[in-house]
Amino acid sequence: MYRKYIKRLLDIVISLTALVVLSPILLVVAILVRCKLGSPVIFHQQRPGYNEEIFKLCKFRTMTDERDENGELLPDAVRLTKFGRMLRATSLDELPELWNILKGDMSLIGPRPLLVSYLPYYTKEEKLRHTVRPGLTGLAQVSGRNLLDWDKRFATDVEYVRNLTFAMDVKIFFLTIKKVFVRENIEVDTNQVEGNFAEIRKAKMEAADQHKEGQEAN
Q1: What pLDDT digit, counting tens, does each position of 125-143 carry?
Q2: 3-class DSSP state for residue 137?
Q3: Cβ(110)–Cβ(135) under 8 Å?
Q4: Among 54, 84, 122, 209, which one is least packed by beta carbons within 10 Å?
Q5: Can the peptide bond before residue 40 be classed as cis, meaning omega within 30 degrees of 0?
């Protein structure tokens, strides 16, 4: 009952209320982003959602469009300004995702939506993370945020899907508030923590295939 009906109803009520109450903050952040980082103010990126359907994730931009002499974008570490780091550290950059929640692309609580390019590399069990709507925050985020390695993060996402209850969502909600205010386990340069998931998984798959071929040869 909660998973099928009540969770979505709460998402609508909470996201709509939050958009109204936080509208002054959204406006101020939007103006600052436009002045300090340029336009567009909102960064859109395709992400897989419920049942792996692709949607456009909305976030405040946190990087400039600085390019080298050949017109190529400079590395993320260079384009991520002090202001952008502050937006990420305080999670203010994620406030536009409230619109995604209201639309039904996302839920307030659920596994974080990752890159579309990661889809071929999930295990069968890890694909369970896409049987619920992705969330603004989730069990993995309050269990270590982006400091968890990939395997642990996905195992935590699966744990959430298998044990989803109202009580769990309430617990995650308040733990998220705590972590945002005390700024626990936050790494604004996620590339340094995560590495390249696709390359890591591809290497593991190739190693597993080679091991299997070796066993068959013996």
Answers
A1: 999 999 999 999 999 888 8
A2: strand
A3: yes
A4: 209
A5: yes
